[in-house]
Design goal:
The complex is a heterodimer. Chain A is of the alpha/beta class. Chain A is built from 7 helices and 10 strands. In chain A, a hairpin with a 2-residue loop joins strand 9 and strand 10. Chain A is globular, with a radius of gyration of 17 Å. Helix content of chain B is 53%, strand content 18%. Chain B contains 15 helices and 12 strands. Chain B has a 6-stranded mixed barrel. Chain B has a two-stranded antiparallel ribbon with strand order 11-12. The longest helix of chain B is centred in the first third of the chain and has 39 residues. The chains are: A alpha/beta, B alpha+beta. Chains A and B meet through helix 2 and helix 3 of A and helix 1, helix 11, helix 12 and helix 15 of B.
Chain lengths: 234, 412
């Protein structure tokens, strides 16, 4: 499902009279099980490309295929269905639902999917333990630190073992140790379960984990390189 | 909707409702007071309507009347009927008929030494009239008739004053017999009654039925048979069986036909209650829309997040409507309790004698009895739920239509 194909993607934004180019004729293929970093300065189009792949935003032109889905052709409901079952999102801001506890946040997607309570409870507890949040299951986001919240967000993204995880600056608000833990977890999931990761970042420490590094500037892909991942020194 | 979806939607709706306690409590109070106002006003109006209907039906009297076919066109003694017998008598003895009375009712003139007035002479059998509740309840002086053979006359306080007569004095009763000859008789005033309406005191005089039949020379014939089941709203359900039982030449008419003003007043009052409820809630709905619009505005990012995680627009819509439904439900419960607590103690009557003069024009007495009815509570509940959900639909629909990426990038 996770092979991604983008053809001639264009996206512009209007800010007053100014036209900002988000994506400028982007062509890209990502194979199933790849661990890819999109890098580049702010405004280079990383987040716009991620949003387009996840069906959160619709390009002005071009085609996107994610697995069996022609993303640019799907209705709102079909996009929601695709995101619900096949894609895990991690955002820069922790983006948890404030009225739900940590475990309820992790269970959220499974609940919408209709997974039985006992099953989703067990899976949520296990994944929270895996991200080091054992004992904090019943805390609300307001009672957790930024790092703990981001761990919950990651747990939520991967608990269902989606085929594709799209992460937008996932370590931007984390200290080096937490960032390293997350990246190690992502790499492990990629290796063990074949989950495809596409991570946007301008953090060189994160880029070091990627086997494929795509550099963007002004909405274009300016470099697309394979590399030997070497992790980050903590 | 999947079971898990329903559970998460209801959890989110309930917890989000209490995120801003103060705003929710204020809105809750507003809905509760609105609901209380709807039910309280409906109870007052129902009480007023019941009072007017009772008075009106006591004057008719009865919820159904049986007449000779031409009687309503020409209510003279010539259009009288034989008293109920056979199948009709058996039908009148069967529920839901609670009581009936056969009476002579003719236009007449009462003359005293000083003055004379046109009146309606009622020749009644006190026992059966008492059962249908058509007799004046308040005998101010003297006594009421003892039986149908009583040769005395009971007149209203107002009429006594106009005729300048008094208890124990003789007056002359005059009417027409079936041959259109004058039938008259001197009678003694044995009682003076007081009615809730002065018009009643002025119009109706009571004499023994047998005495009036004898004066008019009509044997045992009567003008009408009044029937009651003590439930004026249900008359259409039971009067057709009486209609089927009467013989040829007689007609059976429900009160809605006999007094079309009362009938239209009842339907206007029922309609007015609904209009009042709708108006009250329309005012409230502005607050409700504002509450929900603010809730959506404050949670745009969260809604975007839920969409990004795959929550379909229908569930977002459902969650916000459920939030509104919780608020409405709590407001309704509180409002209904308030209404029960405030109306029950007043059911024994509210003294409105200060404005009774004006109320008499509407056919009411000096005490108002609020009547709490389940139908009014159900109607206010239906109005609140239907209009409340309609008012919530727009902000909820707009939330469900948000673009995830726009919503996620919203800064508050």
């Amino acid at each position: 499902m996770s092979s991604i194909s983008c053809r001639n993607l264009c996206r512009t934004f209007h800010q007053g009279d100014e036209v900002i180019t988000g994506l400028d004729h982007v062509d890209l293929d990502i194979e199933e099980g790849e661990f890819v970093c999109l890098s580049g300065p702010s405004g280079s189009g990383k987040t716009t490309l991620l949003n387009a792949m996840g069906g959160l935003d619709t390009p002005d032109e071009g085609e996107i295929t994610v697995g069996k889905y022609r993303v640019d052709k799907l209705s709102k409901n079909e996009l929601a269905e695709m995101r619900l079952h096949d894609i895990g999102f991690v955002f820069q801001a922790y983006n948890l639902i404030p009225v739900l506890s940590a475990i309820e946040n992790v269970e959220f997607v499974m609940q919408v999917q209709g997974i039985a309570a006992a099953d989703r409870g067990a899976r949520a507890r296990a994944i929270l333990a895996e991200v080091g949040l054992q004992g904090l299951e019943d805390r609300r986001p307001g009672d957790m630190s930024g790092g703990q919240q981001q761990r919950v967000a990651v747990a939520r993204a991967i608990v269902n073992q989606p085929a594709l995880v799209l992460a937008d600056e996932p370590t931007a608000n984390l200290d080096t140790r937490s960032a390293a833990q997350f990246m190690d977890l992502f790499v492990a999931l990629n290796r063990q379960h074949g989950i495809t990761f596409v991570i946007s970042t301008h953090d060189t420490r994160v880029m070091a984990y990627a086997r494929r590094l795509i550099r963007m500037r002004d909405g274009r892909i300016v470099a697309d390189e394979q590399q030997e991942p070497h992790g980050m020194a903590v | 909707m999947k079971r898990g979806s329903l559970s998460v939607v209801s959890t989110l709706a309930w917890r989000n409702l209490w995120r801003n306690h103060r705003r929710t409590l204020i809105m809750l109070l507003a809905i509760a007071i609105g609901v209380w106002a709807m039910i309280f006003m409906a109870a007052l109006m129902r009480g007023m309507t019941d009072e007017m209907m009772r008075n009106g039906l006591n004057n008719l009297p009865g919820e159904v009347q049986i007449h000779q076919a031409n009687y309503r066109d020409d209510p003279s003694v010539a259009n009288s009927m034989a008293p109920p017998a056979g199948e009709l008598a058996r039908e009148l003895a069967r529920p839901p008929v609670a009581a009936w009375a056969a009476r002579v009712r003719v236009p007449a003139v009462v003359a005293s030494e000083r003055d004379s007035r046109g009146v309606t002479l009622l020749g009644v059998d006190p026992a059966s009239e008492r059962a249908i509740g058509s007799l004046p309840g308040d005998i101010q002086e003297g006594r009421f008739l003892e039986d149908e053979h009583d040769r005395g006359l009971v007149i209203g306080r107002k009429l006594a004053s106009r005729l300048e007569t008094a208890l124990g004095k003789r007056v002359v009763l005059m009417s027409q017999d079936p041959q259109n000859d004058i039938a008259d008789r001197g009678v003694r005033v044995v009682g003076i009654y007081r009615a809730r309406l002065e018009g009643t005191e002025d119009q109706f005089v009571y004499a023994g039925r047998a005495a009036v039949q004898e004066m008019l020379g009509i044997g045992d014939r009567v003008s009408e048979v009044a029937v009651t089941a003590h439930d004026y709203r249900a008359v259409d359900r039971w009067y057709p069986q009486l209609a089927a039982a009467v013989g040829q030449g007689l007609e059976v008419a429900p009160w809605t036909e006999l007094d079309s003003f009362l009938a239209s007043y009842l339907s206007v009052q029922d309609g007015f209650s609904l209009v009042f409820m709708v108006v009250v809630f329309l005012v409230l709905s502005f607050g409700l829309v504002n509450t929900l619009a603010m809730a959506v505005f404050e949670r745009v990012r969260e809604i975007g997040l839920m969409q990004a995680l795959g929550m379909p627009p229908s569930l977002i819509l459902g969650q916000l409507l459920l939030e509104s439904l919780y608020l409405l439900g709590l407001g309704l419960a509180l409002g209904n309790l308030l209404a029960l607590a405030s109306i029950r103690p007043l059911e024994s009557g509210i003294d409105i004698s200060a404005v009774a003069q004006g109320m008499e024009m509407m056919g009411m007495g000096t005490t108002l009895y609020p009547a709490l009815a389940l139908t009014d509570m159900a109607m206010s509940t239906a109005v609140v739920i239907v209009l409340g959900l309609l008012a919530s639909l727009l902000p909820a629909w707009r939330a469900a239509r948000l673009e995830p990426v726009t919503a996620l990038n919203t800064t508050m």
